[in-house]
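F.,

This is the one I mentioned.
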């Protein structure tokens, strides 16, 4: 018979393990979404003051969980824009970059595109506080991902990736968190760049996708393997040629340009969410519970790589 005090010790030990397994907080997720999307002006490239307010909000949120925070400032057409960077595990030299853009296209709230990704960063910051890591993790909130700067050297992610390359910083890989909040169990709610893909992936938009190009490198391969193994949410992987429409439609494309291993996690954007770049892209359309599970999967993966 096991002595009672040993049972108590075992119970406390198991309890500490359960506390270790962090979970994304749906209440915090919703509050962040409100604070980022319900602003006086839309956070597009024309409203520099609004973008700066969001940058300050992201920085303030990061400061709750780490002292290692910087603005990466750069000028475009006489205006100064800011990437916001929070670092964890700074005792390590090799880095993992997890990024999401906080600007929007035109006059819309951009709840899924891409407040959802930015909130993912904010929740990861909370979950990573005090965590023992195998790599330095930089959470980077970019600006100027959207048109008219998309696929130009003015993108915040281009500025960041070029800085890493120019300074020979040791990068293991990069994850772009691009639209992670829209899901649907309705038939024919999921479309594809090539119609035949529905035979392999189904026609319901009820999963998250890990997207990488052929030859995307070791980090991208391992991230996909570990994320799927975590089984936090229905997950499908997609690997294709870089020229396939949509495969490079986010910040990871700039890390590919500089030879870094990178991939994107996404709800497939306009192939599923027809609120894309429309005023209807609001919080009310998002599935916050599933969004939380996506974030859990990222956390579980980056803490086990």
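My design for it:
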């Amino acid at each position: 018979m096991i002595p009672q005090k040993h049972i108590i010790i075992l119970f406390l030990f198991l309890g500490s393990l359960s506390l270790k397994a962090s979970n994304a907080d749906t209440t915090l997720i919703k509050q962040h979404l409100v604070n980022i999307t319900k602003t006086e002006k839309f956070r597009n490239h024309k409203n520099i003051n609004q973008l700066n307010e969001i940058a300050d909000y992201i920085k303030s949120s990061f400061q709750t969980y780490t002292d290692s925070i910087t603005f990466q400032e750069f000028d475009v057409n006489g205006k100064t824009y800011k990437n916001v960077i929070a670092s964890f595990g700074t005792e390590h030299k090799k880095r993992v970059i997890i990024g999401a853009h906080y600007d929007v296209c035109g006059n819309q709230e951009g709840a899924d595109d891409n407040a959802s990704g930015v909130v993912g960063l904010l929740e990861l910051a909370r979950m990573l506080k005090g965590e023992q890591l195998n790599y330095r993790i930089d959470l980077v909130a970019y600006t100027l991902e959207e048109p008219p700067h998309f696929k130009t050297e003015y993108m915040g992610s281009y500025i960041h990736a070029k800085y890493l390359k120019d300074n020979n910083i040791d990068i293991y890989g990069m994850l772009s968190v691009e639209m992670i909040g829209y899901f649907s169990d309705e038939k024919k709610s999921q479309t594809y760049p090539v119609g035949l893909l529905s035979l392999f992936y189904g026609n319901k938009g009820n999963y998250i996708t890990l997207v990488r190009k052929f030859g995307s490198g070791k980090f991208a391969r391992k991230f996909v393997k570990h994320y799927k193994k975590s089984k936090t949410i229905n997950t499908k992987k997609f690997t294709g040629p870089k020229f396939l429409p949509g495969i490079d439609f986010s910040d990871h494309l700039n890390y590919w340009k500089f030879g870094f291993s990178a991939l994107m996690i996404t709800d497939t954007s306009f192939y599923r969410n027809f609120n894309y770049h429309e005023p209807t892209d609001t919080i009310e359309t998002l599935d916050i519970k599933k969004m939380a599970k996506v974030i859990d999967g990222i956390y579980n993966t980056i803490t086990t790589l």
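The radius of gyration is 19 Å.

Talk soon.
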